[in-house]
Design goal:
114 residues, alpha+beta, globular
Length: 114
């Protein structure tokens, strides 16, 4: 995988290495993406109707699910954002934020410009 101190080099490359990645526009309001498990393979769908930044964040969010919720995905096929998985969704948001903008690097850049 392609990581650096400044974050990842390309979330889409990373997702392509660990899953079957689909990036297509979908006119369903509020659906940024999802992960599932089908025929012994993880599949990540990212809705390309959103901005590239939003799509990258969604990709990092879904990567969390592939890493930390693989067993649940294999069993249930999809995680619906309900109370049952609220904590996992919250963790995925934090993971995506830190993954795309590592705290140490953000602080370093911030202190250089202030």
């Amino acid at each position: 995988m392609k990581f650096s101190r400044k974050g990842l080099s390309d979330i889409f490359d990373i997702l392509s290495e660990v899953s079957f990645l689909i990036r297509k526009p979908l006119d369903i309001e509020g659906l940024s993406g999802f992960s599932t498990y089908f025929e012994d393979q993880f599949i990540v769908f990212l809705n390309s109707n959103f901005t590239l930044g939003h799509e990258r964040f969604t990709g990092a969010h879904e990567l969390y699910h592939l890493i930390y919720n693989a067993d649940i995905l294999k069993k249930e096929k999809i995680l619906i954002n309900t109370e049952k998985y609220k904590e996992e969704e919250d963790c995925a948001y934090v993971f995506a934020s830190e993954f795309l903008m590592p705290e140490d690097y953000v602080k370093e850049v911030f202190y250089k410009i202030v």
